Amino acid sequence: MSGLVLDLFAGPGGWGHALAVLGVRDVGLEWDEWACKTRAAAGQLTVRADVARYPVRPFLGRTMGCIASPPCQAWSMAGKRLGLLDQPLVHQAVADLARGRDTREKLLESCRDVRSLLAAEPMRYLHALNSVGEPDWVAMEEVPDVLALWRQYAAILRTWGFSVWTGILNAADYGVPQTRRRAILLASRTQTAQPPAPTHARTAEPETLFGPGRNRWVSMAEALGWGATDRPVPTVCAGGGPGGGPEPFPSGSRKSLSDARDRGTWKQPPAGGVVLKPRRKGSGNGTHEDRPVDGSASAFTAEAHRWSWSLRSNNQTNATVRSIQEPAGTLFFGHRANECVWVAEPGMGLDRQGAAPEPIRITAQEAGVLQTFPADYPWAGNKGQMFSQIGNAVPPRLAAHLLAPYLGKTVSPDDFALAA
Length: 420
Known about the structure:
This protein has a domain at 4-205 and 394-415: Rossmann fold (3-Layer(aba) Sandwich). 24% of the residues lie in helices and 16% in strands. The chain has twelve helices and 14 strands. The radius of gyration is 23 Å and the shape is globular.
């Protein structure tokens, strides 16, 4: 196999799906069983292996591109962030590996988080590949706090003849319905490395003499197809805890917001809010009445309530809360405190009448769409395993914009149809 794209820490296929859209296949190295099963179901070539132990030899002489998104839990705001305390050790590991010295085992003894040194693993592969003049290009992604480490990688890559760019990019600027900020490294032996031109902005820009302006950021409602009359809302019933354990609340006590529409309890109001007809007190344990809505004005009495929905990113007091008419905040999962839920507020210009519907947990399918995976992407595992994969993945739409210039490809607006 020649012209291979090596995808380290491949996850469920964020980079891989982007490459598939661009007409290229990757070979992914991934340890997580369920991420491997997801990739396999999506038709992506995968080797289930520990990146830290897998030999580089099989890839020498055949690799044109190298991608790396090391696990971010040790560095992420969503975790304990012990990786920040381990930074000097990681920098030392990268410096040593760049000189062909493997000191990982000794350095690991001093790490506060055993995952910290995974951010140094790409250098082991890059050093070996560079010995045979490969790869042609490199792309790496991590949480913003890893930018200093990417700059160290950049300094080393430049001594090997690469043009390198590092910086922080916002996924929303590339059509992802999520303001996900990530530290990016782009390097190339054959062209000047630079970030792709943003395609979207917080507010739409007018056309100028130089061409059309950028589009407005994609909202959650737009991505999920809420408000569209020609497409159904993606539907997946809730179930399973976000950490992979048992259902954290009684089965059926909360349904997906998508499910509410499919059962006829959802109606698009003129102002773009969501209408839910609460069950009368004492009428049962369900959140919403199981009565169909015929869409006529008479179906909504003074007892019906119109609500505007927002997405709350976690259960903590400083959680990001965004209206469905905006992009989501950064989606991250893997712990009960990181559960994302839809929360209801009175629609604009309307007074609250009665109790608001209970928070409705986001489904894996909805979360996947907000990461710009297809609505029918074949996520494997239980709910917790799916959410963990989704939260750790690179948004494919962002990945495609990052990779396209180095593959001689272009990204079409139709390549990532967000709504189901």
